[in-house]
């Protein structure tokens, strides 16, 4: 089962369990959840898909903005 989570429809400041607070993206101004990135600076995820498998769960950003490292 695949679930789409759209953080742009949530109010700023709402705390999402296991994700963190919904914040305003400094790049585009839309609501999103800040997450670290292995490749660059942090990213603000605006929408993501989650899929549950027998041995765990995979989550992938579908709509996000990357920010340069400070």
Structure description:
The protein is mostly beta strands. It has one domain (2-66). Helix content is 0%, strand content 56%. The protein has no helices and six strands. The chain has strands at residues 2-6, 15-16, 20-24, 31-35, 43-53, 56-66. Strands 1, 2, 3, 4, 5 and 6 form a six-stranded antiparallel beta sheet that branches. A hairpin with a 3-residue loop joins strand 2 (15-16) and strand 3. The radius of gyration is 12 Å and the shape is globular. The termini are far apart. The model has no long low-confidence stretch (mean pLDDT 92).
Topology:
Elements: E1 2-6, E2 15-16, E3 20-24, E4 31-35, E5 43-53, E6 56-66
Helix-strand pattern: EEEEEE
- Roughly how many Å is the radius of gyration? 12 Å
Helix content: under 10%
Low-confidence stretches: none
Number of helices: 0
Number of domains: 1
Describe the structure concisely.
The chain has no helices and 6 strands.
Structure keywords:
mainly beta, six-stranded antiparallel sheet, 0% helix, 70 residues
